[in-house]
Amino acid sequence: MSKRLFYLALPPLLLVAIAFVLVQLVQELDEASVDRKAAERLTLYRQTILGEYQKYRYLPYMIARDPRATSALGLGQPVDSANRFLQEMAENSGAELLYVMNGDGTTLAASNWQEPLSLVGRNYGFRPYFKSAIQGEEGRFFAIGATSDEPGLFLARPTPVAGSPIGVAVVKVDMGPLEDAWAEGGETVFASDANGVIFLSSHADWRYRTIEPLTKDVRETIDLTRQYASRSLEPVSDQAVRARELVTIDGKAFRHNAADVGLLGWTLHFLVPVEETRKSILPIWASAITLCLVYAVIVLVLRGRRLRKTSVLLRQESADLKELNTRLVGEIQERGRIERELLEAQRGLARSNRLAAVGEMSAAVVHELSQPLAALRMFVAGTRKFLEKGDTQTAAENLVEIDSLQLRMANLTQELKRFSRPGESRIERIDLRESIRTAEKIARPRFEETGVSLVLDLPETPLEVETAPLRIEQILVNLLRNGADATASEQAGRVELKAALADGDVRLQIADNGPGVPEDLRERIFDPFFSTKTSSGGMGLGLAISMRLAEDLGGSLSVRANTPKGAVFELELPAFSAVSDSSRAKAEPESEAAE
């Protein structure tokens, strides 16, 4: 059977192999054609750049020789006649700017002397073209204007042209029209300087990005000369752009060719999308796939004839299948009967669970109301003593606390009713620090009774959560009272509550120095009616209720060992900015049908 499959698959495999070889050959030919075209286009673009340079190269030399332009240097101050002459020369030559600087780089005359961003009086002695020209050399530099914030090619000559220079004549050439012509041509071409910074590009988004990351020294040099103002100069690609390599820019692959301009270390880059180098590949693969499909159709037709012969034998066996089907129907009916009996048993189990839930709820009511009742008894006793002493103000304050506790007991009764329907709690945006302080006030009598110290470590910034505040207070009161009970027998019992933001969650830690929770009991500590208390009469519901409340609010409650002794209960709740849709959905009221 395996040999037969091999012979069947051999023709398609040969077709694919032949197509692969043809694709490699055609792709090499296409790439060679693209490289030839790139070389031709690079030569043309190089000539346009050099032509633009040669077009204006003579101009600073002429200005440096003309006394009408350099008269300001002799006077040492701006002269209107020199400004007007430079303005007329700029209009006639098409240059963007013409200006003359003195020996320290201060501009004394400029063609834009009447414009708001006039160069007159501004110092550009930090520019490399000025430094080269003032030393008697020809200055050439491409940069963004320090005043106009517009890019251009700066060409400079010393004046006088013979002897010691006392000033510099400068022409700024706008390379924008050249760049616009590249963009209109529809081709992808750009020019980079000696440092690898793209300063001319047919794609405006690539301008002032780099072909590879800049070193610290190069970036410092660029910043010192303010060549590209405040541009970020981020790499245009994750990989260095080198000649005749495939590069990926902005998620698109290109075949890259480059050529030296022969001016200021500039390099021209010509990119062709990779898909254009693979236009001939698709027909080859389409032909190969078509032939494979034709072959597959022929094989299927022949196989269909064989299957028709096989179907005759299958019809002969259908009688046996009918008999088997009859037996299966009987088994299905028997299974249906058993499933109905199981369903009835499940209904009985559900009734038993509801009765168990009623018992658990009753115990929960006793457990949850005992906490505020204990606080209420202490406030009543204190009020009586204050009244006996005539301290009516303190007694009035205690009455306010008593009224607050009775209101909390009413709300708590309602919340315990919602224990079986957690979705009915009211969700609001709160500062968790307020809930912590409220819980501390309720649990404080228990700490005073046991002599255990309670320390709160809260941040100065708000801990904003979107949750049910009363339920959070229930959890915290349970955990604080458990901590007080656990450390009551210690000589220096201490419970510490810390709260902080951590990884998008609000994390609360209640640590004590009591005997701790044995490792083999940590998984059972949150089970209903399980308690490690032997003398305090605990019912084992506080942690079970707290665990359920925490999970209903989209959080979690866990326990671990404290160092050097004791236990740490950790409550995590999603911070306000990280509340998920699922946790909000839990807090929305359920429908009556859900009851």
UniProtKB/TrEMBL annotation:
Chain segments annotated as transmembrane: 282-302
One Pfam family from the record: HATPase_c
Membrane-protein topology: Multi-pass membrane protein
Catalyzed reaction equations: ATP + protein L-histidine = ADP + protein N-phospho-L-histidine
CDD domains (UniProt xref): HisKA, PDC1_DGC_like
Keyword Phosphoprotein in annotation: yes
UniProt-listed SMART domains: HATPase_c (SM00387), HisKA (SM00388)
UniProt entry tagged with the keyword ATP-binding: yes
Swiss-Prot/TrEMBL keywords: ATP-binding, Cell membrane, Kinase, Membrane, Nucleotide-binding, Phosphoprotein, Transferase, Transmembrane, Transmembrane helix, Two-component regulatory system
Molecular-function GO term, any one: ATP binding
EC number: 2.7.13.3
Cleaved signal peptide residues: none
Histidine kinase domain: residues covered: 364-577
Protein name (record): histidine kinase
UniProt cross-references to Gene3D superfamilies, sorted A to Z: 1.10.287.130, Histidine kinase-like ATPase, C-terminal domain, PAS domain
Compartmental location: Cell membrane
